[in-house]
Amino acid sequence: RIQFGSGAWPLAPTSLVQLLRPSPEAVSAMVWSIFVYTVVPTGALLSAMLLSGKSLPMWAASKVLSTPLTFHNLQYSLGAVMTAVCLALSYMSYLSLRRCEWRAEETSDTAPYQDQLWRDVFRQGRNLYLSLLGLTVWAVAWRAKVLYDSEQLHYPMVHVRRRSLLVRFVYTALGLGFLLLADIPICRINYNLHLATFVTPKKQSLLTQSRTCEGIMLSSSGGMCGEFCKEVRQLSEERHNSIMFARNWHVLGRYAAELFDDSRGVQQGAERIKTLFEKKSCVEVLRSVDRSNQMVNYLCIVFAGISLLGAFSFFASVLHDHTKGHAHAE
């Protein structure tokens, strides 16, 4: 019996088992959470250690990957087992994705559970890419470990001239500076991704209902057009939320965007949305709700790439030392 306050009610044993036993969806979510936060980062870390070119990290990663795992009378290394597990997960995720896609495509668009089917497609696609990522990092770690053990991948014995701390500090500062500069174009890229994810799909859906509400203003709308204008207003607010979310996550990007708005005399907020609906019809607002300057977007992609490459080049220079003469194999 389970006691709640002053009352009690009996619970059958089977019901108690169902209460304590997690659902298959919960188990699946837990497994993939463990995979994301343990398997993938561990494989990536071991790969980075083996590819670092430093003797101590390479030796430590090789020892970890050499950990023996015994199954009956067979013994395998940790790297081989994890690579096989990720390969199996990739194959099963691919099959599940294909099945979910088939179910979603065969089902009528008017089915009440159509959204659930496409959510399943998304989840299985996500699982496939996660398992492929795990397969990649563990396969690289396993192969690098084999090369290291066979002395084909080792730290060369060379004469080096160490960089001074001042030079390393300068390179670090330059790398951080380029990262901060990259924050400006990445902020706009992030904003456009939010538009494409949360605004554009809803816009396309509303455009199919816009014919009967052409030229209708929000203030004079009613009936079906009233509901239509209400949804357009909500979509405009979603666009504003996308702007604020992107700016809140980017320090320099926020200041650059606000400076750009000030130069155009634009003030983001509820008042701007209200003014927009006073001047334009609901359909006109809908058509421009995800509008963005494509030339600026392309320039931001280019500048983000250049800034990130520059940042990592400077960070690589922090760890790099000048070599003298020729390398001698151990």
From TrEMBL:
* Provenance organism: Alexandrium monilatum
Q: Per UniProt, which keywords does this protein have?
A: Membrane, Transmembrane, Transmembrane helix
Transmembrane annotation, as ranges = 29-53, 73-94, 128-145, 165-182, 296-316
According to UniProt, the name of this protein is Uncharacterized protein
